[in-house]
Design brief:
24% of the residues lie in helices and 28% in strands. The protein has 340 residues and is α/β, with parallel strands linked by helices. A 6-stranded antiparallel barrel has the order 12-15-14-13-16-17. A 5-stranded parallel sheet has the order 3-2-1-4-7, with helices on both faces. A 4-stranded mixed sheet has the order 9-8-11-10, with no helix packed on it. Helix 1 crosses helix 6 and helix 3 runs antiparallel to helix 4.
């Protein structure tokens, strides 16, 4: 069996490559240009090529930038225009890394594809949280179909991120990208507003800022500039701090109010990706509605490809467009979907 390892240039994917090679697997390194390769990106690919040549691993680079723009960037922009707050990383895992990139790997003779994700897979193909609670990335994988996860390999599932630099140093390996960004890869400086303005699309304009009872208290500069839970930048002086509670795209209205208005007891989720048949779920699941949130106990009510989560106690209001991931008490991922 041949395993293609998706190498980005960072520490995690490089260690994943080294671990699989040391375990005796036939491996090849595969680098994807998700953005149109410029001089810096070509130098990175050359550095990876030289590193792989030194350790005796075949290296291949593939330009997937056109498809990435079509399948990741364009939906990201459309979601913001529609008043949503998308999660492009989860879609990228589903459509690019374990979709198109695996197809490229298969053309090169690979049977499976490995990445540096901190997540675990059981032999039955079940997705399990990574051993490092501070780095676990299973949340971002819950939109990936089971048949795609069945051909995935996660060598770092049992590792802790803090141990990776020393492990690479012990092997004499230095990644071309020693520091890794935690932000969205295609947004320079993590300034999504400037990115959206540069895309040449018609962005929704100003509209009313209203309280939950409908009273207009100001004007906003475009719903795409705001996120649920935001406090700073609303620009309205009030008797108490105001938070963004909702974005009503059909009315182009921004709803604001006190922090207590951010408490929620349920949320609706669509476009469900079931990793475990719902009949095998426990009566109480653990639901996670953003990456940096601990899972909360909830009951899942499922109808077709949609789900309603009813939480046992109030949670921070889930943001439409984000991913809702559902787990059991053992860390097994049950499903993922998009919050409406």
């Amino acid at each position: 069996m041949t395993i293609a390892v998706a190498v980005s240039g960072g520490m995690d994917s490089l260690l994943a490559l080294a671990l699989l090679r040391e375990a005796g697997h036939a491996v090849l390194a595969l680098h994807a240009h998700f953005l149109a390769p410029d001089g810096r990106q070509r130098l990175l690919a050359q550095a990876l090529d030289g590193l792989c040549r030194d350790i005796g691993v075949p290296f291949h680079a593939v330009d997937l930038s056109a498809r990435f723009r079509q399948q990741v960037i364009a939906p990201f922009v459309h979601a913001y225009v529609s008043g949503l707050t998308p999660n492009p990383c989860a879609g990228c895992n589903r459509d690019m890394k374990f979709g198109l990139l695996f197809e490229e790997a298969a053309r090169l003779g690979a049977d499976r594809i490995a990445t540096g994700h901190y997540a675990r897979l059981k032999e039955a193909g079940e997705l399990i949280r990574g051993a490092d609670p501070a780095k676990d990335q299973s949340y971002f994988l819950t939109l990936t179909p089971p048949q795609a996860l069945a051909r995935a390999v996660f060598p770092l599932g049992e590792w802790r991120k803090a141990d990776v630099p020393a492990a690479l140093a012990a092997r004499g390996l230095a990644p071309p990208l020693p520091s890794e960004s935690q932000e969205i890869c295609f947004i320079p400086g993590d300034d999504y507003r400037a990115f959206l303005e540069a895309q040449g699309v018609a962005l929704p304009g100003e509209g009313p800022v209203v309280l939950p009872d409908g009273r207009e208290i100001g004007r906003h500069q475009g719903l795409w500039r705001y996120t649920i839970g935001q406090r700073k930048g609303i620009g309205i002086a009030w008797s108490e701090p105001l938070y963004v509670l909702d974005k009503r795209a059909d009315e182009n209205a921004l709803v604001v109010g006190p922090k207590s208005g951010l408490d929620a007891l349920d949320c609706r989720v669509r476009r469900m990706n079931f990793l475990v048949p719902p009949g095998d779920w426990p009566s109480t699941v653990l639901a996670q509605t953003c990456y940096r949130q601990r899972p909360r106990p909830a009951r899942a009510q499922i109808s077709g490809a949609e789900m309603t989560l009813v939480f046992e106690s109030p949670v921070p209001k889930p943001t439409p467009g984000q991913v809702a991931a559902v787990f059991d008490g053992d860390g097994r991922a049950l499903a993922g979907g998009i919050i409406t």
